[in-house]
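Good morning C.,

I know you're traveling, so I'll keep this short. The sequence:
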Amino acid sequence: MLKKSLIALSSALTLTICSQAYASYPEKPITFVVGFPPGTSTDAVARILGESMGRKLGQSIIVENKPGVGGSLGVAQVAKAKPDGYTLVLSATAPMNINPHVYKSLTYDPLKDLEPIGQSTWLPYVLVMNKTKNVNSFKELIDYAKAHPGELTYASIGKGTTSHLLMEMLSKTSGLDMVHVPYSGSTQSQSDVIGGNVDMTFDTVVSALPHVKAGRLNALAVSVNKRAELAPDIPTIEEQGIPNFNMGAWLGFFAPKGTSPEIIQKLHTTLNESLNDPETRKKLIALGSEVVSSESPQAFAEMVKENYETWGNLVKTAGIEKQ
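The tokens, ready to paste straight into the viewer:
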């Protein structure tokens, strides 16, 4: 009887100590790891949210850039970090949903080694085409591609990247036969589409829009299921006859596996409060991002898993072998 009482007392004391620790969290600066270089959109989102969340949590937030392997080095670092809520990663779609299907060397399992906290933004892509083919609408593109199989070309920033797989999705759902021209970066691929060396590409709205407004490119459709806030005049692919086409790049926060549910929930709540802050939203939208929050960490986890399977199937369809 005494032994049971001591065990119960010990458990109660442990719970009390843990509750006090969670209540006082955070007691020191938090690090946001970003798997991309300074100046990228992911880095900019991390700094904007770090400033806002830091104010709400009463601690400074440090952004640490760990670029490499398409953003996966940063995720790998956080997957191995101490699960105490002080090292988080702001990940894009690729490290969590695409890279595990493309790279053999990854040292983490995106569905097992991290605790999802919440989504922060959603980056729509726009399908743009050069002027040489005189194709001015999405319907005209579909009609032309079907009438001239194997003639049209499309650029991407590399095999297995978002821009490549979006076009694979479009080709698959529309029954199109087009030629993939991979590049090593967005600057040259965009330049060659503008110059007419390649016919089209999927690019981010914020990157492509200046060229659309200047008359250098035709914008045919956005890749998500609602019109982009920065480009409300460009219709969606779904509006133009292809149902359930809702593909883009999301950003969201993750902690190491084993981080306490209380800390995860506190971070989730703070993130959503920042996303609802008018000034913070304004800054994020200016980057070309759509501000999107998750109802709960569990809802975000389900979205990540669903996207993991969708992108994985696209990688298989594209015939991409693991590197």
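Safe travels,
E.
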